[in-house]
Structure formats: structure tokens, C-alpha cells
Amino acid sequence: MIHPLLALTALLFYGVAFAATPKINTELEQKYFSDVRCKNEVFEELNGMLATREWTLPSAREMDGSRRFHTPTQITGVWVEARIFMNGEALLRRITANYVETRTFDLETCALKQAARKSRELFDSPVASQLKFSDRDVRELLDENPKGLIYIWSPNMPYSYQQRLKGKSGVEIIREIGQKLGLKVTVVLDPAASGGYARQLVSQHSYMRPESLRSVQSIELSLRAMRTHYPALIVYANGRLARHGYPGLGTAEEYTKYIRGELNELQK
Question: For the whole model, what pTM was predicted?
Fold first, then answer.
């Protein structure tokens, strides 16, 4: 288990403590975690990993019958995956953009087995001339701005940037809403997009800006389903990101309704 002092040190180092108590998904916990073997030790470890327990169930059962659950932690850019097997065994993974730590439990003694760390490169490294938008950048945004919007566009999804709705593009609509509501607007790029093609489009549209060429390299945004469809929008306030983003192109009215609703939730 992570020592409480080390956990606190990490939290202070990153400067990302939640402004409000996270909303534990008790419904999922009661339904799927009640019969987990070594339950006390599993939850003790989850607390040591700073998991907020805002669980989501991203898919149906795996081929072996197990289920995977994801939750953010109190450190932006670090998530926890809990895999629950049909025999009640639990496997926990601490996920970052650069490595995964796996933790399992001895089913006879409930002792924590030695954690295994595996380094990995989650994202393809952008070319030298292509800027990236990482979890560090997300943390800085949340730390430096009381509230704002992150909008991901893709040159492969024309609705992301072309002028469609009442002669305006999604980027223009989001910037206008941001100005009206006093929100910092950050526009970043689909990580799978061609940097060359994106630069060409930015140069052709006066409402696009050079900073919108930063390629998203963030585990935090990825696990908040911000890479399932473009454009994608997410709200943040009080040092916290909304639990879910807004996929696809919306009208000014639709975007505004989503944004106001999420801001209200983040204020609680």
C-alpha cells in the first residue's frame, strides 16, 4: 500500500487536490464490488492509490468473463483500472501515459503481492516540429484558470473546423461561448491527425490559431472518452474536469446547455 505521507506528498507536488468531495459511484460498487475477495484490502489499496472511485464500466465482460472498471484519481493524468474476475479476485492497475503499475492480492492471506511496473509509450511520439498537449498541460490549465473549455478538433472530421452551423465552425461557436461566459478556451488537435495537413488547414482558416496544432497526448482526456469522436468538448472548473465530455458538433444552444450543466456540477 502507498504510505499516506507519500500519497499526500504526491498530491501537494502536483497541486491538483479536488475542490469538492468526489462522487463515489456507489451503485457500481454495490453491484460489482460487494463480493470481491479480500475486499477490505482492495479498498485500502484503492484509497492509497488516491482513487476517487467515480467508477465507469467501459464495456461488457471480457472474453474470460471478467469486468473492467475505470476511475480517475486525485492526480490529473493518473487513473486506476480495477479488473474483477468471476472467482472474485481483483487486479488493480495504476495507469499513466508512461507506465502501468499492476497490483494483485494473495487470495489465502489477502496480502498485497509485489507491484509490477511496466513502462510503455501510450501515444505515438509526434515529429519534432509538432507540439503536444500532455497531462502536464492539463494540470497547468486547471491550476491557472478557475474555469474553462478544452475542445479537440480533427482535420479528418470536417465538422470540427469547417463553417457549417449558421455559417460558423465549431471552433468559432466554442470561442464565442467562452467569451460570453468568461471561460478560458483551449483548442487542441486529434493525436492521430497528420500534422502537415492540420497546419495546412490552420493556415487556410483565419479563425484557427497556431496553438490549435498541439497534439493531445493526455491519458486524462483519453480515459474521459475524449478520443471516441471529434470534435470533442469538455468543461473544467475549480481544478476539476467534468466527468464526461460532449462528443460531436453541437449548436450554440446545445453546447451552452451542456457547459452550464457541467459548471453547476463542478461547483458542488
Answer: 0.83
